Amino acid sequence: VPRYPLYTREEVGRHRSPQDRIWVTHGTEVFDVTDFVELHPGGADKVLLAAGGALEPFWALYAVHSQPHVLELLREYKVGELSPEEAPPAPDATRDPFAGDPPRHPGLRVNSQKPFNAEPPAELLAERFLTPNELFFTRNHLPVPAVDPSSYRLRVEGPGGRALSLSLAELRSRFPKHEVTATLQCAGNRRSEMSRVRPVKGLSWDIGAISTARWGGVRLRDVLLDAGFSEEREGEWHVCFEGLDADAAGAPYGASIPYGRAVSPAADVLLAYEMNGEELPRDHGFPLRVVVPGVVGARSVKWLQRVAVSPTESPSHWQRNDYKGFSPCVDWDTVDYTTAPAIQELPVQSAITHPRPGAAVPEGELTVKGYAWSGGGREVVRVDVSLDGGRTWRVARLTGERPVPGRAWAWALWELQAPVTAGAELEIICKAVDGSYNVQPDTVAPIWNLRGVLSNAWHRVHVTVSR
Ligand code: HEM
Ligand code: MTE
């Protein structure tokens, strides 16, 4: 039996690039897979996601690896073992409000650790129509609340001062189960491109503050009708949601949507307890969250505690003083949040997930891939792709599930194959068109706004073609 040198996880973590060699661990074994990266059937970029760390969290997402020949192949690259003292990292024992946050997938691109905000790497974002729960982007404003499902109750304020208090068991048994495949997108998706024009305030999201899941739960409409509300209400009303996560002053995360959307059977607004057939994960609102299809993610309140109907919008900071769009001429001295409506339905959006900016792609047939989506259930009818900075265009092939027009809650994935010649510099662009023939603006500057929201200009990726 060969004796291998022992390494700590920290030592393994220093090997994350071809120059430093690319190491990964599996169980207690350490492998130098630098020479395998280019041979990987799933692509070199995928292996690099695990560089310096454990393979298991990634392999758990791709069952092709649970075959004996994969482990045999890996064995050829063994260079060491983890030292026996290397226990799994200890949880933070200090009095930190975030110490109770759940463990997360190491593949996520973290924009902020506390509160936790992270997006799936672009390489995996559009690999699947449904985003695996572990990779679904996470947008938390506060620590993740710890909820005991047996004592959990949802409070629904009914008309005339009556209220419903529903346990999870009652929610499941009193109302029919309803499932919806819907994409959630944060208002700040692609903010990093906006801050390149001029600095903005907010987390620097790349193209991944968007993900898609099959949500299971009960219709908000059914719960509101059961609480005593009727389909029609005179005048303008709002359905307000409160989460169990609260800030230091005790104010919960909150948001609201118009009453008409909440009771419309065609709007498919859910109180979801399931995500992709699994119990809702803690980061995504366990045990119950709102899912408002076609609407900015901020209204899909997680860890839902209370639902109320009100003649005014939610008083929450996140409804009244954030998540609104402004003219490029408005700055922090002149902004008046009362003058702009809260973002609800989002505009048409698309982005290129492959290739990545700055990549060197091989000559021959290039495959360009990405996602496209529009708010309000407007289906994506076309995605145009240019390889020459917008001089000429081709139409991409839409893949994934065909939507019901007007209720296209989920993104479309798309692909385009084109021949490319060695030495060329490509400026790849994508732009989507929705069922109302809405299009994306060609540049960022005219839609720049101080909070960096609604960033949906043509997505541009520069690459070079190598031999
Ligand atoms: C496919 C090995 C890391 C994603 C495969 C296959 C092998 C393999 C042998 C082909 C399996 C078959 O079809 O029978 C490895 C090894 C790795 C590694 C040795 C570590 C050094 C990763 C990582 C990811 C990944 C970190 C994801 C982040 C994939 C995907 C496929 C694949 C998506 C399927 C490709 C396709 O069906 O076209 N891998 N893999 N792999 N791998 Fe890996
Ligand atoms: N709900 C609560 N209770 N607390 C939050 O911080 N963030 C909102 C929304 N619901 C938030 C919330 C925002 S801004 C977005 S974009 C979505 O949740 C993100 O949902 P996800 O983390 O499941 O992707």
| Gyration radius over CA | 24 Å
Amount of beta strand = 25-35%
Sheet with the most strands? Answer: 5 strands, mixed
Average pLDDT, to the nearest integer?
A: 94
Report the total helices. Answer: 10
Low-confidence stretches: 89-94
Range of helix content: 10-25%
Number of strands: 27
Structural class: mainly beta
Largest sheet: spatial strand order = 1-5-4-3-2
| Overall geometry | globular
User: Bound compounds, please?
Assistant: protoporphyrin IX containing FE, ligand MTE
* C-alpha end-to-end distance: 43 Å
Structural notes for this entry:
- The chain is 12% helix and 31% strand.
- It has 10 helices and 27 strands.
- The strands form 6 sheets. The chain has a 5-stranded mixed sheet.
- β13 (238-246) and β14 (252-258) form a beta hairpin.
- It is globular.
- The two termini are 43 Å apart.
- The model is unreliable at 89-94 (pLDDT under 50).
- It binds protoporphyrin IX containing FE and ligand MTE.
Defining key terms:
467 residues, 12% helix, binds protoporphyrin IX containing FE, 10 helices, 31% strand, 5-stranded mixed sheet, mainly beta, binds ligand MTE
